[in-house]
Amino acid sequence: MGSGAPGAGKGSNARLVALEAEARYARERYQLYRAKAYGPRLTSAGRLRELDRASMLADRRLDRARADIPMPRLGD
Fold first, then answer.
1. Is 3 part of any domain?
2. Would you say 43 and 36 are in contact if contact means Cβ atoms under 8 Å apart?
3. Considering the entire predicted model, what is its pTM?
């Protein structure tokens, strides 16, 4: 019944779900703004860089959170 560290489970799973949603939202905002740049409407290169950076940071937070989750041992 040992799944790793005490307290690992629902709390860490909820945090991962939230970080995944945050990363997806940031990535989609960046992709939509990048697509908008191909159209006739004015876009800002600074805003595009800002959205790209926010997307990368959200992905890094998610990667770090995934790396912090202890892997279950085989045979338990």
1. no
2. yes
3. 0.76
